[in-house]
Design a protein that fits this description.
α3 runs antiparallel to α5 and α7 runs antiparallel to α11. Helices cover 62% and strands 0% of the residues. By secondary structure, it is an all-alpha fold. The protein has a single domain, classed as Heme oxygenase-like (Heme Oxygenase, Chain A). The protein contains 13 helices and no strands. It binds pyrroloquinoline quinone. The site of pyrroloquinoline quinone has 10 residues, from α9. It holds the Pfam family TENA_THI-4. Its EC number is 1.3.3.11. It catalyses: 6-(2-amino-2-carboxyethyl)-7,8-dioxo-1,2,3,4,7,8-hexahydroquinoline-2,4-dicarboxylate + 3 O2 = pyrroloquinoline quinone + 2 H2O2 + 2 H2O + H(+). Belongs to the PqqC family.
């Protein structure tokens, strides 16, 4: 039995056909307006206005995005029709999952590098990877990305990765702001981000060229625009749910709405009651 309503209906066609340059201009305008670089929580983060516990919550939740990116890419790769496209997507999976120690070159993947950040913030790997303390909103938003690339056209799926066109703007401001403002953040804990500065432009240039070449009707151009809007909304939502759940700065605990079962930092207990998630933290000396 097929369901009556598609999970992600295609948006209505554009009124006019855009040239590839006009389409790219539209996509860049969407990024300038909607990318999570403009989210108030991102700005507060690199301005040094968050507490260590709020950064723990961010890193813990964003781990799920990192962990599901290779799942998303493998889902898409299975749908790609040519060896050239599959090779391109295979490299993305290797970037995130790494290679075997015996492989040449043996590379650490992005998911493992993310754990350096969560460890630097004193979260235990076992707690982070168990996904136990995730906010439900994080889980729904990230799962929607995997479902989107599974259910929509290959063109829309490829276009949904185009937020990476804009990540080279957000990563340097996040890295330098965090290193400057938080004494417990070091180059080592931020190691995840450096390789992304070369990986993201390479990946997004390929995806952009492919989209420019293949979105040549008002229908497909609308799909591409809709895919990028969907993805910007997803990244925005990841920050919205953190903001709502943990608040910002020293006022955070008084503003917090932590859902039952999600990570409860020690500093939130007097405001919200309940118990802190002690097993979330590295044991001293670990
Ligand atoms: O730090 C960021 O703000 C940021 C943003 C994005 C993005 O724009 O989707 C990605 C990443 N990082 C990232 O690290 C990453 O591996 C990644 C993969 C993808 C994707 O859609 O395939 N986006 C992103």
């Amino acid at each position: 039995m097929t369901s009556a309503l598609p999970a992600f209906p295609a948006p209505p066609a554009l009124d006019t056909l855009l040239t590839p340059d006009q389409l790219e201009e539209r996509l860049r305008a969407i990024g300038a307006e909607r990318y999570h670089r403009n989210h108030p929580l991102h700005k507060a983060m690199y301005a040094g206005e968050l507490t260590r516990e709020q950064l723990q919550a961010w890193a813990l939740n964003r781990y799920y995005y990192q962990a599901q990116i290779p799942v998303k890419d493998a889902t898409l790769m299975a749908r790609l029709p040519t060896p050239e496209l599959r090779r391109e997507w295979r490299r993305r999976i290797v970037d995130h999952d790494g290679t075997e120690p015996a492989d040449t070159p043996a590379t650490e993947g992005g998911v493992t590098r993310w754990l350096r950040l969560t460890r630097g913030l004193e979260l235990a790997d076992s707690y982070v990877t168990s996904l136990e303390g995730l906010l439900p909103g994080t889980r729904y938003a990230v799962d929607a990305y995997v479902a989107f690339v599974r259910d929509r056209s290959v063109l829309a799926a490829i276009a949904s990765s185009l937020t990476e066109l804009f990540s080279p703007t957000i990563i340097p401001e996040r890295m330098s702001g965090m290193l400057r403002h938080y004494p417990f953040i070091t180059e080592e804990t931020m190691a995840y981000f450096k390789p992304r500065l070369t990986q993201a432009p390479r990946d997004s240039e390929f995806a952009l060229a492919w989209v420019r070449a293949h979105a040549r009707t008002p229908e497909t151009q609308a799909e591409v625009i809709g895919a990028l809007e969907f993805k910007c909304g997803l990244l925005w939502t990841l920050l919205d749910v953190l903001d709502y759940s943990y608040g910002r700065g020293v006022q955070g605990p008084a503003q917090a709405h932590i859902p039952p079962g999600s990570f409860v930092p020690e500093g939130y207990v007097s405001a919200i009651g309940g118990k802190p998630t002690q097993h979330a933290l590295l044991s001293p000396g670990a």
